[in-house]
Amino acid sequence: MRRLQKPKLLFAIVLLISVSLYLALFFNIKTTYRERMHALELLLKERLFDNATTAPGQNAASFVASTVSTSTSHSAMNTTKAYDPIQAALATERAAAELLRQPVVNFHDYEYLRNPVGACEVSETEVLFVVPTAPRNFERRKRVRAGILGKYVSAPSNNATLLFFAGAPNCTESTPKIQSHLDDEFRTYGDLVQESFVDVYTNIRLKAVSMLRWAVTYCKHAKYVIRTDDDVMVNVSRIVSALKRTGTVYTDFILGNRKDGWTPVRNTSEDYLKYAVSEEEYPNSTYPRFALGGLLGYPLSTVTLLYQAALRTKPLWLDDVYITGICASRLKVPVLNDTEFVFQH
Ligand SMILES: *[C@@H]1O[C@H](CO)[C@@H](O)[C@H](O)[C@H]1NC(C)=O
Ligand SMILES: *[C@@H]1O[C@H](CO)[C@@H](O)[C@H](O)[C@H]1NC(C)=O
Ligand SMILES: *[C@@H]1O[C@H](CO)[C@@H](O)[C@H](O)[C@H]1NC(C)=O
Ligand SMILES: *[C@@H]1O[C@H](CO)[C@@H](O)[C@H](O)[C@H]1NC(C)=O
Ligand SMILES: *[C@@H]1O[C@H](CO)[C@@H](O)[C@H](O)[C@H]1NC(C)=O
Ligand SMILES: *[C@@H]1O[C@H](CO)[C@@H](O)[C@H](O)[C@H]1NC(C)=O
Ligand SMILES: *[C@@H]1O[C@H](CO)[C@@H](O)[C@H](O)[C@H]1NC(C)=O
Ligand SMILES: *[C@@H]1O[C@H](CO)[C@@H](O)[C@H](O)[C@H]1NC(C)=O
């Protein structure tokens, strides 16, 4: 008799543990879900997203709005599935796992010419601002340091860091002068990362990847990364709070000024040559939805995924289409259009 009871008891214990684990997991997910839905409603109330266009699935506001309106009925999130926060997180997780199994096709192993390795430790960075800049843009960098952004990051309580990213000056007569000027800046401000690729317009993708790479390598404890150009004026505290509030809803996302259905410029006449993209480089007739590179925000976890995706995705030199469009769509990362991220050069 006793011999029979032992396995039964064991079985009952295992069953009990499994059931409790399952219930704990279920309620945990449910609570997270409810919290996120609540945060989503708050976001809407605060009018963070643009509601202008209403085609379903075409803009952030419409899918956010329809997600909220269906959240109480627990059903029919069919058309908005990709942007339901939980569904989006699962979809990204799956897509990322799939993508990471693929081989690296674009090694990005340029050496660092200048690297302020400790920049994120000094300020216990929570938000890292990355600004692509041409080596010769001394004046613009000066204005950024002295402007709203420079003032914001210099307040210790904001836990923010600002870094400029450049490549190597193209070899022209003035190169030694430009490089020694950069070195002076590096010594004075310590806010410049320089990789060894040649800094020319057609290499902007490499610069964009260099910013992702630096953030994931040297700024691991930051929560968010904001990318802005050296000639863009922004209300920093507003974009930071828009980003943080979106972060209470979504795990991975890109916040920016989104462009849907843009087509590649095929015209190679003089006027367009600068932007032209050949069919060989990009065969499809439209780009995936993407966010303009002039002002973007994303969590560090998304930056990590985008960096890994960029190593594994056929390149296109247009950096914003490539990173926030092509790489993001492979990862199924939501690209959210936000009114705060409208900017002017
Ligand atoms: C966007 O839609 C939400 C809910 O549908 C509404 O409360 C809010 O006022 C709208 N925002 C704007 C800017 O129209
Ligand atoms: C999605 O849900 C809506 C509303 O519940 C329903 O009217 C529509 O037919 C559904 N669409 C698909 C493709 O299932
Ligand atoms: C900066 O970090 C400190 C300590 O973690 C925190 O108390 C403070 O709220 C942070 N500041 C901002 C603007 O988030
Ligand atoms: C560097 O600049 C010169 C003109 O100043 C140009 O002819 C050359 O193509 C540039 N190098 C690269 C790699 O683009
Ligand atoms: C940024 O926006 C906030 C809130 O709307 C406002 O109080 C502040 O004055 C603005 N800052 C600048 C520099 O425009
Ligand atoms: C290309 O652009 C030029 C204007 O810069 C225009 O005259 C020409 O017709 C365009 N070519 C095509 C194929 O659209
Ligand atoms: C190009 O179009 C094909 C077929 O519609 C699609 O599978 C592929 O993902 C598209 N590529 C990009 C980069 O959007
Ligand atoms: C994004 O928002 C801006 C301004 O809020 C709006 O003009 C634009 O049409 C929106 N883009 C999309 C793709 O909905």
From TrEMBL:
What keywords does the record list, in alphabetical order? Glycosyltransferase, Golgi apparatus, Membrane, Signal-anchor, Transferase, Transmembrane, Transmembrane helix
Q: What is its EC number?
A: 2.4.1.-
Q: Which domain of life does the protein's organism represent?
A: Eukaryota
One GO cellular-component annotation of the UniProt record comes to: Golgi membrane
Q: Which InterPro entries match?
A: Glyco_trans_31 (IPR002659)
Q: What is its main location?
A: Golgi
One MF annotation (Gene Ontology) recorded for this entry: hexosyltransferase activity
Enzyme kind, highest EC tier: transferase
Q: Which Pfam families match?
A: Galactosyl_T
As for membrane topology, the entry says: Single-pass type II membrane protein
A GO biological-process term: protein O-linked glycosylation
Give compartment(s): Golgi apparatus membrane
Transmembrane portions of the chain: 9-29
Family per similarity comment: Belongs to the glycosyltransferase 31 family.
What is the protein name for this chain? Hexosyltransferase
Organism of origin: Lymnaea stagnalis (Great pond snail)
